[in-house]
Specification:
The complex is a heterotrimer of chains A (364), B (165) and C (342). Chain A has 364 residues and is α+β, with helices and mostly antiparallel strands. Chain A is built from 15 helices and 6 strands. A 3-stranded antiparallel beta sheet of chain A has the order 1-2-3. A 3-stranded antiparallel beta sheet of chain A has the order 4-5-6. Chain B has a domain of 95 residues: Beta Polymerase, domain 2. Chains A and B meet through helix 1, strand 4, strand 5, strand 6 and helix 12 of A and strand 3 and helix 3 of B.
Chain lengths: 364, 165, 342
């Protein structure tokens, strides 16, 4: 049967495009000849909105970018504003931020683990990942009442203190995660099907990855140790002892291993931050109406998906002149065309999943 | 650049070399809040980018940011400022290039130098209408292809042209 | 017993039973699958409709039967409509040849627990189960849509490839039993005192793997891989026709499990049929043993599904051509040799 090249639309409604992404594939039977990603289905014009809101009003909107890691978005934006306005954040607030941001990274990675496994057909892992993530969301709920779009970081500090009861609960949650992780690793790590679906798939060399702008766990899976928490420490990250896990081959399997190891490292960081939680204020004094003299900053943090940057330019009023977000998913998605070419159709799903994209962040 | 790299001494040699190599192209070098901004003339953009990448080791283009100077530009000022946020890995030294470009002018595409400029330039084109010459497929990225206007321009109404949806 | 009862009532009753029995098993299997998978994943699963949710599949079926029947304009109407029927029909028809136990004597009348006994029953069942692949490819092609077409192509390649090891292992059983009659095969196992599964473990393993692949079940569920092909060949189907595909898949699983039990695990025989000390096991009706064994294999299906990721297409084909077929061939030669020498 002659089965020539056909065009296949994957999405915007498709079970494994993680949102409203559309991939235009040209396939020859099962082999993918080319991929073109079409985005914008979720474009809400966030950057335009931000220009018309005050600095404080922007924070809850950043929750809606990467909705699986809303706290990281808060942190990225808030740190940029603080740098712009020269606000010094109390040390206790910085530590609480680290606790929250690392818990968020755990939640994001666990959700990713579930999605990725489900894309490759191991559906139980989805539930195991989400079960573990749920315990973290419960912590967020206890901290500030919200679970998904948390808005848990404010300009100048954090909205609530972290009391002993909550700290004890966080420790309990942290103790539970390695057990769940061990279950998942027992199911996947040495599973022949899992390895055959991930090892060597979606491989990208470190140089190419940097040229494509890849950041975060996907870049570290290539062996490039680029982690903003180490390179440009923000929010007291330099006071904690942690490793930056690296992969070697830059394939889907290494991305999986890197993220698993990052989960362990995040647990380490949270434990240290809870142990060393300094006394003091949880927020700096920030004027009710924050007016910032004309200036510009570009500040980046290491979000769960990669390097998240905010460029903010102020004009002396209480509203920013321009806010530009460098979203990690947007830039990471660019390389999908490079990685998928020549692979089998089934691998597109696995590769896309391994990039850990969130459409809320891509489409802004 | 006398006081330019005052609080980033490690970048000084690279920047000195840059302005020495491209006299007339590098208009100014400024440091603000620890961040370096190099203002360039439009024509010198690509050679400077190439030199920064290949000689100074700035191997990552992190983002392209466009500013609409509609309300701030004085007489004869150009409409847009395009900022190139470069980063050097390993480490994380950053430098920002700023190029002014008028509404009806094009800018050379950075894609031949940095592959990651592809979508960033498409985004800039979509949102502001800045044209990048030599881009392999400059078309809208967020808005539908038949959309008219550029939403992030300052004269584009916040609630959309039809008063919102 | 009047001729009316013997010639009309009992056959009609059997026909009804042969439709009802797979249907009931399908309902049980769907419930079992959803509950067991849920429990393995730390969820509860459906537990509202009826006792522990047993009636959930019935409720779902009723819902599906009342749903709007959608067919897109470009579809080939005849093939589109006929394929779910074909799939369902071939699955149900095969059950006519599946014996449920030894004949029961009621006075002078012998009630056979099958509709048709054929000396080539095994072949007929294999043939019928291959017909269902026509339903799949017709359905996928007639939908005139890309995902179903890809699903159908995958299904054809997969089922055709895995038919070969299935056939080769079935042959070993036929060799040893010197029969293709399913009832005879069970009787032979009784006579020889061992289940063939223990006599020929390789045959069993190859047959089981191929059977899972032929029923398009995880980890070989590529033709309907949700994360890749949305729903594979039945993407465009809705309502009752979708329900047909869905139920046929489960009926097929029940059929395959029955076959495994008959060929390799002594059908309705209790464990160790020839061991005197375990003779009390004969007190349990054969049908119960039979059902218990079938349920075990159905459970195995569910267990595998909850555990393993999905194969990729090239690996799936590599597995069958490079491993299963050579293995089945060698196994076949060994069995044949032993059979001839003895």
């Amino acid at each position: 049967m002659a089965f020539k090249e056909i065009n296949l639309n994957m999405g915007p409604q498709h079970p494994s495009t993680h949102g409203v992404l559309r991939l235009k594939l040209a396939v020859d039977n099962e082999v993918v000849l080319s991929v073109e990603s079409i985005i914008g289905y979720l474009h809400r014009g966030m950057e335009k909105l931000w220009e018309n809101l005050t600095y404080t009003q922007v924070v809850p909107l950043t929750d809606r970018l990467d909705y699986l890691a809303s706290l990281s978005n808060n942190l990225g934006y808030v740190l940029a504003v603080e740098k712009l306005a020269g606000i010094e954040v109390p040390r206790r607030a910085r530590y609480i931020r680290v606790v929250l941001a690392e818990l968020q990274r755990l939640a994001s990675h666990l959700a990713w683990l579930g999605f990725q496994a489900n894309d490759i057909g191991a559906m139980s892992v989805l539930l195991y990942g989400f079960e573990a993530r749920e315990t973290i969301l419960d912590v967020f709920e206890e901290y500030c009442g919200a679970r998904l779009t948390i808005h848990g970081i404010r300009i100048g500090g954090v909205p609530h203190d972290l009391d002993a009861a909550l700290a004890a609960r966080i420790r309990k949650v942290l103790d539970g995660i390695p057990r769940r992780l061990a279950d998942i690793r027992a199911l996947l790590d040495d599973n022949r099907i899992w390895k055959q679906r991930t090892v060597g798939v979606g491989r990208i060399a470190a140089d190419d990855a940097i040229a494509y702008g890849l950041t975060g766990p996907c870049l570290r899976a290539c062996g490039a140790a680029w982690d903003m928490r180490k390179d440009v420490p923000y929010s007291s990250y330099d006071e904690f002892d942690f490793d930056v896990p690296l992969g070697r081959n830059g394939d889907v399997y290494d991305r999986y291993l890197v993220r698993l190891e990052e989960i362990c490292q995040s647990i380490r960081i949270v434990r240290q931050a809870l142990d060393g939680l300094p006394e003091g204020e949880t927020s700096a004094k920030v004027p009710r109406v924050l007016k910032v003299a004309p200036a510009e900053v570009f500040h980046t943090i290491e979000a769960p998906k990669g390097i998240l940057g905010f460029y903010i330019r102020s004009n002396g009023t209480d509203k920013p002149e321009r806010v530009k977000m460098k979203s990690p998913s947007f830039i990471n998605l660019q390389s999908v065309e490079h990685m998928c070419k020549g692979n089998l159709f089934s691998d597109v799903v696995g590769i896309l999943g391994s990039l850990d994209i969130v459409l809320g962040e891509i489409d802004k | 650049m006398p006081d330019a790299a005052a609080d980033r001494p490690e970048l000084r040699p690279a920047l000195d070399a840059l302005s020495a190599r491209f006299p007339g192209v590098v208009l100014s070098v400024g440091v603000e809040k620890g961040e370096i901004t190099v203002r360039l003339g439009k024509a010198g953009l690509i050679p400077v980018l190439r030199s920064l990448k290949e000689e100074a080791g700035f191997n990552a283009l992190e983002d392209i940011i466009v500013l609409d100077n509609l309300r701030t530009a004085g007489e004869g000022g150009k409409r847009f400022t395009v900022l190139y946020q470069l980063c050097r890995f390993p480490g994380a030294d950053r430098v920002r290039l700023a190029v002014d470009v008028g509404e009806d002018e094009g800018l050379d595409s950075a894609v031949p130098v940095y592959r990651s400029a592809d979508w960033a330039e498409r985004e800039a084109f979509d949102m502001f209408g800045v044209r990048f010459e030599g881009h392999p497929g400059l078309r809208r990225i967020y808005m539908p292809d038949d959309f008219e206007g550029h939403p992030l321009r300052k004269d584009f109404p916040l609630e959309g042209r039809d008063g919102g949806v | 017993m009047t001729p009316f009862v013997a010639d009309v009532l009992i056959p009609v009753g059997k026909i009804v039973a042969v439709i009802l029995y797979p249907m009931i098993m399908v309902v049980v299997m769907i419930w079992l699958e959803r509950r067991v998978v849920a429990l393995m994943q730390g969820r509860l699963g459906p537990n509202r409709v009826g006792f522990q949710g047993v009636l959930q599949p019935v409720a779902d079926a009723v819902k599906l039967f009342f749903k709007e029947d959608i067919m897109q304009r470009q579809a080939d109407a005849f093939l589109f409509n006929i394929s779910p029927v074909l799939v369902m029909f071939s699955s149900l028809l095969a059950f006519c040849f599946v014996p449920l136990g030894e004949p029961i004597r009621i006075g002078t009348y012998t009630l056979t627990l099958w509709i048709a006994e054929s000396p080539v029953g095994l072949l007929i069942i294999l043939g019928l189960s291959s017909i269902s692949v026509f339903g799949v490819i017709f359905g996928g092609w007639a939908s005139n849509s890309k995902y179903p077409l890809m699903g159908a192509l995958r299904s054809v390649v997969q089922v055709l490839s895995y038919e070969i090891p299935t056939g080769l292992t079935v042959l070993t059983v036929a060799f040893v039993a010197r029969s293709m009659d399913l009832v005879e095969i069970v009787r032979r196992q009784e006579a020889s005192g061992t289940w063939y599964g223990f006599l020929m473990p390789v045959s069993f393993i190859v047959f089981w793997i191929s059977a899972v692949a032929e029923t398009n079940r995880a980890p070989f569920d590529l033709p309907e891989a949700e994360s890749e092909l949305v729903a594979g060949y039945h993407t465009e189907y809705s309502g009752m026709k979708f329900a047909f595909f869905y139920m046929a898949e489960y009926a097929h699983m029940v059929l395959v499990s029955s076959l495994v039990v008959i060929l390799f695990f002594g059908g309705w025989l209790p464990p160790f049929p020839s061991v005197k000390a375990l003779a009390f096991l004969h007190a349990v009706p054969g049908f119960v043993w039979y059902l218990v064994k079938i349920m075990f294999f159905l459970y195995l299906y569910v267990w595998i599904r909850a555990t393993l990721p999905r194969y990729r297409f090239d690996a799936l084909i590599r597995l069958v051509w490079k491993w299963l077929i050579p293995l089945a061939l060698v196994n076949f030669l060994v069995v044949a040799l032993v059979r001839v020498l003895r």
